[in-house]
C-alpha cells in the first residue's frame, strides 16, 4: 500500500515539475521511467511528459530558438534611454502593467495606438513562449469623470462603467487581446489605502485637513525617469500652488471628499485617491513590487510615471520596474492629437468608415515610439493593403480547396511519402521568418514588417495559384499545392502575431471591407448595382463615353470596376484624386 502512495506522490511531483520546468523534464523523466517502480505511475508520468512537451516546451523551444539565433528581443527602455536585451526576472514569465484609460468618454485614436502597441508586444511575448501576466487598468474615479457626470446628471461610477464597456468594444474591434487583469480603482480602495498608509508610515506622506500629500523631497532619485529636476519645477508659475504643500511639487495621494463627489471611508476621513497612486497600488497587487514591463503613452512619463516610481519606492524600497516602455503620440497635421486641443478623432468615428483591421494596419505602420500622423490617405492605403492580403488568402483557399476536393490525399504521395515544397517556396518561407523575426526583435519594428519578405510571400501565392490553374505535371502540381499550404500558414502566423487575423473567414473580411468602402462612397449596394447595370447596357450599346464616365466617377469614390468576360465585378480602391496625392 505504502509503495502505491509513494508512486502517486512521485507522479504528482512530475506533473508539478512538468509545468514548472518543461525543458528539463524530458531528460530527467525518461531515465526515471526505466527505473519506474509502479505501473500506475507510468501513464500519469507519460501524460505529464506529453502535456509538457506539447504545450509548454513548444513555447520554451521557441524562446530557445530565438536565443539560439543570437537575436534576443531588444526593447527601448525609457529609464536608461537605450535599447536593451529583454530578460524577465522569472524564467519564462513576464509581468507587464500598462496604464489604461480614464473612462469618461469614447476613446480616441491616441488610446487606440497605445492599446495596439502593447497588444503587439503582448502577442509577440506569447509567441516567444513567455507566460505573460498583462495588467491594464481603468481609471473610474477621477475629476474628469465627476465633472462629466455632473453635466449629464449620471452617477459617476455608472458613467465610467458605461465608457469602460465602450472601450472594451473598441478593443475587441481592434483585435486587442483581453489583458489578464483589468482592474478598476473603485474595486481596489483597500490596496490603495494600504499603500498610502505605508507611505505615511515611511515618512514620505503627510496629512493636511483630510488630504494626503506625497513629500517628493523624501525621495532621493525623484526625476530619474523624466529627467525633471526638483529645483527646476516651478509649479507655482502656471497653477496656483496649494499653500498647504511643503514643496510645490508634492502631489495628492488622497483627496478629502467634496460635496456631491463619490467618496470612501479612510483613516484620514472621507475621500478618494489621487490619480497616480492607483497604478502603484494595482501593479503591486497583481505583479508585486518588482516586475518586468511598465508601459503607457509618452505623455505619461511626467508626472504620472515619475510619481508612480516615487510612491512605489516610498512604500517598498526594493520596488523596481525593469523596462519602462512608452509609445509616441498620434498627431493631426503634425500637432499632438488630444482632447484638450479638440483635434482628435474617436476610434468609433474612424471604424464607422474604415475597417478596424485597416485602422490597426495603419497604427502598426509606424514604429510604436515614433509620432504617427493621422492621415486619410494612409487609412485608405491601409484598407487597400488589408484587402490585398485577404483577397490573396481567399484565392489561395479557393484554389487549394478545389484541389483537395479533387484529390483528398493531396500533400502526400500514394505511399504516404511527404511532398517537398518547391525550392522557391522554401526560400520564401525562410526569408519571411527571418525578416519578421529580425524586425520584431529590434524593439518591435513593425513599420516595415508587412513589406519586403511578407509581400514576396503574397506574390508567391498569387503567382502559384495562377500557375496551378494551368496544366501541370502531377509531381509539380503536388509540390505547388504543398508550397501554397505552407506559405499560407506562414503568412497567417505573421498576421496572427500582429493581431491582423480575426476569427473570421477571408470572404467575411472582404465583405466587411467592401461594406466600409460603400459607406465612404456614400452608396448602397443597390445603387452600385444599378450603376454597374447602367454601364453594362452602355457597353452593349458601345457608348464608351458613358461607360468611361461611370467607371471614372466610381473610381473617384473608391470603387474600382473590373470587367471579367461579360460580367463586371468591383473591389474597393484608393479614391483616385487621393491616389494622385499619394507620396511617391
Ligand atoms: Zn498609470
TrEMBL record:
Domain (Cysteinyl-tRNA ligase anticodon binding) ranges: 531-571
A molecular-function term among this protein's GO annotations: cysteine-tRNA ligase activity
PANTHER family: CYSTEINE--TRNA LIGASE 1, CYTOPLASMIC-RELATED, CYSTEINYL-TRNA SYNTHETASE
A cellular component term, taken from the record's GO annotations: chloroplast
Gene: LOC115756972
Family listed: Belongs to the class-I aminoacyl-tRNA synthetase family.
Keywords: Aminoacyl-tRNA synthetase, ATP-binding, Chloroplast, Ligase, Metal-binding, Mitochondrion, Nucleotide-binding, Plastid, Protein biosynthesis, Transit peptide, Zinc
Protein's recorded name: cysteine--tRNA ligase
Domain tRNA synthetases class I catalytic: 86-382
GO biological process: cysteinyl-tRNA aminoacylation
Stored InterPro entries: Cys-tRNA-ligase, Cys-tRNA/MSH_ligase, CysS_C, Rossmann-like_a/b/a_fold, tRNA-synt_1_cat_dom, tRNAsynth_Ia_anticodon-bd
Pfam families linked to this entry: CysS_C, tRNA-synt_1e
CDD domains with a match to the protein in the record: CysRS_core
Entry superkingdom: Eukaryota
Source organism: Rhodamnia argentea
EC number per UniProt: 6.1.1.16
Cofactor(s) the record lists: Zn(2+)
Compartment annotation: Mitochondrion; Plastid, Chloroplast
